[in-house]
Amino acid sequence: MPNPKPPPLKKRRPDHVLRDLGRALRVAARFTPLFGRGYAPAVRRAARLVGRELFTAEEILRLGLLDPALSADDLPRFTSRRAMTLIEQRLNPEAWRVLAEDKGIFYRYCAAHGLPTPRLWALFLGERPGWARGRPAPETREAWCGFLESDCPAGLVIKPGFGGYGSGVQVLERTPDKCFADHADRVLRAAELVDRLYVGAGIRGWVIQERIHNHPDLRRLSGSPYLQCARLITLSDRQGQPHLLHAHLKVIVGGNAIDNFHHGATGNVTARADLERGTLFAAMAGNPHGAGYLTASRHPDTGEAIEGFQLPFWNEACQLAKTAAREFLPLRFVGWDIALTANGPILVEANWNPDPTNPHRNLHLLRAKIERLA
Fold first, then answer.
1. Does one domain contain both 256 and 191?
2. pLDDT per residue over 182-196, tens digit each?
3. 137 and 203, same domain (yes or no)
4. What is the pLDDT of residues 221-268, one digit of tens each?
5. Residue 54 belongs to what domain range?
């Protein structure tokens, strides 16, 4: 299958070319001792990756793109974040970005269209009027304390209304004395929690929702009680028909409460799924020296097999992603985070510009599908 051509780029200014060349030289200098390759070949490849393929120096280092074990024919399997964003901007109207990226709007929109999500309990907007399920929104600090202590479920997830990579997400359980304990057993009184919400409310505030739990098979795989989502990427063609392009499971390792992989920096792993069967391939883990990825066929903590693991409710998850893709048009390219629970799949988040799937080395296939369907 031929590799799709990248979208046309604006002509770069000479000073930007020189800046990128300097970055390429610095990256090559860092990689030469790591991989033992000659400096001149590293410079040539780094200059191409930075200048023509739009990779940043950080991406080249993180993905291990100067590793001599990677041939020139392997490089199309990777795509820079900037090049992928250009593709996504071509497919997704900027004005509709808020539908997926503002979590408060996302959950209310899903509810209006009958799409299953964790039950939304409140939208906290600081000093501005918010929203609460089944009642007027609390208006004072004291009223919010009472709401959290008495009117919310015992298990809560509080997340920023806008953000990514799991930043700021809090997973909390209410204690018998009406305090709240996080994953590290740190305990907050309701007043302390509300003060934090006011300080961090910003423009889009906080989403307060019920905590949901993974299917028992996923909990057995990782040994973690915290939510691990499958990322399903869909593309709607020009006739509005959704197509599933890629899927992977974000697998928690260690004591993390969030499943985000974040290029391997969190210690979690990510495993690509067979689109037809919903079985996992071997997982990818961050390399300790920070360049490239390592393969893990079994979970590092439990020893359970990742490779060949059958994702529960796979057909239902695929159908949910396609149904959501139809409801979210004119957004055409979306990465859906779907929780696989004991009662079936649930939409957790939508990403209008999901990260390139570089750890799985399949960007050449994704870009070919995009060019064919777009």
1. no
2. 988 899 999 999 999
3. yes
4. 999 999 999 999 999 999 999 999 999 999 999 999 999 998 888 999
5. 14-78
The pTM of the full predicted model, rounded to 2 decimals, is 0.91
Is residue 335 domain-resident? yes
- Can you read off the two tokens belonging to residue 216? 């028992």
> Distance of CA 270 to CAs 29, 102, 227, 230, 259, Å?
29, 25, 14, 9, 9
DSSP state of 217: H
Q: Which residues contact 292 (CB under 8 A, 6 or more apart)?
A: 63, 64, 67
Which of 190, 210, 230 terminates a domain? The answer is 210
Beta strands (DSSP E) in the chain are 120-124, 131-132, 155-160, 170-174, 180-181, 187-188, 206-210, 229-236, 242-251, 269-273, 280-286, 293-296, 333-341, 344-351
- Whether residues 236 and 334 share a domain: the answer is yes
Q: Of 115, 143, 326, 120, which Cα lies nearest the Cα of 205? A: 120
Domain boundary among 210, 232, 248: 210
DSSP reduced 3-state for 87: helix
CB burial of residue 42 (10 Å; 0-12, 13-18, 19+): buried
| 173 and 272 co-located in one domain | no
| Under 8 Å between Cβ of 283 and 296 | yes
Rg (CA), the chain: 22
Does 350 lie in the same domain as 272?
yes
Residue 8 within a domain: no
Q: How far from the centroid of its chain's Cα atoms is residue 348's Cα?
A: 11
Measured distance CA(186)–CA(224) in Å, rounded: 18
* SS3 at position 40: helix
270 in the same domain as 363: yes
Task: Give the β-pairing of 155-160 and 131-132.
Answer: unpaired
The total domain count for the chain is 3
Quickly list H helices, 131-207: 141-146, 190-199
